[in-house]
């Protein structure tokens, strides 16, 4: 089992920045792909970003490329999502996820999910 605890989120204005963090526990952190998803009101959950903890390979949804950065701190079993130049369309509940590979995350599959955190971007 992997437990994921999310922190961060909140209400910001368009153009502002936010940082989300996810602390993993329960199994060897470096064995997993870690990622972030989001779900806007009335929409399906969508992939945002993923990172291979072991190889630091990163993947992003086209909608966030150049604005969001995913990173991991292996010593702290933490994956973070730095979100810059936020837009109202970034509003949603953000979820941390872990999977056997980043490939799984990119196609929307995860073995473990953290609790969601609300991100609201006002215009």
List the helices and strands and how they pair.
Layout (H helix, E strand, L loop, with lengths): L2 E5 L2 E4 L4 E8 L7 E7 L6 E7 L5 E3 L7 E6 L4 E6 L8 E8 L2 H5 L5 E2 L3 E6 L1
Main features:
single chain, 123 residues, mainly beta, 1 helix
Description:
The chain is mainly beta. Helix content is 4%, strand content 50%. It contains one helix and eleven strands, in the order E-E-E-E-E-E-E-E-E-H-E-E. Strands 2, 4, 5, 6, 9, 10 and 11 form a seven-stranded mixed beta sheet that branches. The longest helix has 5 residues. It is globular. The termini are far apart.
How would you sum up this structure in a few lines?
This protein is mostly beta strands and 123 residues long. The chain is built from one helix and eleven strands; from the N terminus they run βββββββββαββ. Helix content is 4%, strand content 50%.
Number of helices: 1
Described by its quaternary structure, the protein is single chain
| Uncertain residue ranges | none
The portion of residues forming beta strands comes to: over 45%
